[in-house]
Amino acid sequence: MSQKRDPRDFLPLTDVAFQVMLTLADGPAHGYGVMIEVERRTDGAVKLRPGTLYRAISRLHEAGLLEEAEERPAPEADDERRRYYRLTDLGRRVAAAEARRRTREVEWARDAGLLQPKRA
Amino acid sequence: MSQKRDPRDFLPLTDVAFQVMLTLADGPAHGYGVMIEVERRTDGAVKLRPGTLYRAISRLHEAGLLEEAEERPAPEADDERRRYYRLTDLGRRVAAAEARRRTREVEWARDAGLLQPKRA
DNA sequence: CGCTATACTCTCTTAGAGAATATATTCTCG
DNA sequence: CGAGAATATATTCTCTAAGAGAGTATAGCG
C-alpha cells in the first residue's frame, strides 16, 4: 500500500509548484526561506508573493508531496516561528518526473532553433 | 516604435502558452493542428482542450507574440476552414527567453540530484 | 520607533478544464 | 448510392483552480 500512485498523475506541475519543490529538493526549508531563495536563484524574475507561496505549499501538503520536518537547525540558528518542510518520497519522484518532462520541452526548443546547440 | 519591449517582460509563460509557441517555432500551424501536435509530442500527457487552446492563442495574439499567416499550403493539402498562425519576431524572442529560463530550472533540478547527471 | 523576519488570510483577476455549438468533409455500411 | 457516423476545424460558455497583491499579526533588533 502506502503510495502506489504514479508520479505522472500529478503532472504537469505549475511553475510555482515546481520552483517550491526544486528549492526543497536541496533540503528542508521554511516558507519565508523558500520565497527568498526562489527570488535569489531567478535573479528576481520569479517573485513568490505570500498568497501564492503559502497556498501552493498547502496544496502540495494536501497532495502528500511535502510534509513538515521535525528536525530543526541548532537553536542559535533557528527562529521558532518557522515551519520547515521537506519533500516526501512521492514528492521527490513527482519533482523528478516533472524535471524530465521539462527537459523534453527544452530539447524541443533546441531542436526548433530557439536555443544554442548543445555543443558547438 | 514597433516593438521595443524586452522579451523578459513576458516571462514566465504558462505551460500551455509555451507548448503552443514551441509548436509554432517549427513553422506556421493552425489551431487544431497545434492541439494534435502537442498531444502527439507529449505522448498524450499534455492535452489541450479547445477552450484552453483557443483562448491561449487569442491572448498570445493580443500580446503580439503570434500573428495570422496569409500563406497557405497548396489547395489540395489545405482546408479552408483553417486559420494559420506563426510566431512574430517578438514572439520568437520571447519563446527563446522562456526556453533559457526553463533550461536553468532543469539545471537546478539536475544539481539537486533529481535527474541523471549530464554525462555518466 | 521603525525595520526585518516570519506566517497566514482575503479578495480580485487570470487561466485552464470541460462541455457544448456549429459546420464541412470524409468514411463506412447496408 | 445514400444515410448516418466519424473526423476536422473553429469558437464560445461556465466552472474551478491558481496567481497577484495587499493586508493582518507578531516578535525582535537597532
TrEMBL record, chains A, B:
Record Gene3D superfamilies: Winged helix-like DNA-binding domain superfamily/Winged helix DNA-binding domain
Domain Transcription regulator PadR N-terminal: 22-96
Taxonomy, superkingdom: Bacteria
Name recorded for this polypeptide: PadR family transcriptional regulator
Native source species: Candidatus Kutchimonas denitrificans
